[in-house]
Amino acid sequence: MTTLATATKRILVVDDESAILQTLRFNLARSGYQVSTAGDGRTALALVASEEPNLVILDIMLPVLDGIETCKEIRRHSNVPIIMLTAKDQEIDKVVALEIGADDYVTKPFSLAEFMARVKACLRRAEKPAASERDEPIVAGDITLDPSRHLLVVRGRDVQLAPKEFSLLHVLMENKGRIVTRQMLLEKVWGYDFEGEHQTISVHVRWLREKVEIDPNNPRHIITVRSRGYMFRE
Fold first, then answer.
1. pTM to 2 decimals?
2. Phi-psi sector, 156: left (phi>0), alpha (psi -120 to 50), beta
3. Mind listing the pLDDT tens digit for each residue in 110-154?
4. Banded pLDDT at 6 (limits 50, 70, 90)
5. Could you tell me the maximum CA-CA distance found in the chain, to the nearest angstrom?
6. CATH hierarchy code of domain 4-127
7. Structural domain boundaries of the chain?
8. Domain range 138-232, CATH architecture
9. Which member of 54, 114, 122, 175 has the lowest number of beta carbons within 10 Å of its beta carbon?
């Protein structure tokens, strides 16, 4: 169903496989989005500059300029949300996609229902960053998180966090001493209201541990609770 909200959203789909390009274009347009398409990275960059889309769907395996380099180039000038498409199902490819600035990734083959849910979640997060329950500083031992100033101090030094890392740590710290399920983290930090990709959380937790823990391989604060989720412990 087309709504005023979706009709004003412009989405750029970049893929060199004609069947996928047309399928995604048809389903996005049917949902009311304005859709542009490109078959290579160079064309995609030109369209991002000229059309300023609200979301970019970007395949990794592209001619002329691949998706990784295209994403890097987009991030030099724009914070537009990017969902990477990849036929590879190895963790390293997903980690690379997140490290270079992608907001999410979808592994081919994928269900259209999940794809559309991720599109909606990504656009929703862009409009309103994931809210937390409180904004006053949270102190846990030698770690202080100040949401109002987007500031993290660990053992007396300022630590820079990416937006998702900060939101993830915020949710964990405001629930310190309690188990936070992976699904709860997906909903609060990534905006998913469906059973999402838990590997995304694992990657960000690993990055957080490298910045917060004295020994990331033996964490004292961000604890994995097997089969359930995570807990922040003082």
1. 0.66
2. left
3. 889 889 988 998 888 777 554 444 578 999 989 999 988 889 999
4. low
5. 55
6. 3.40.50.2300
7. 4-127, 138-232
8. Orthogonal Bundle (1.10)
9. 114
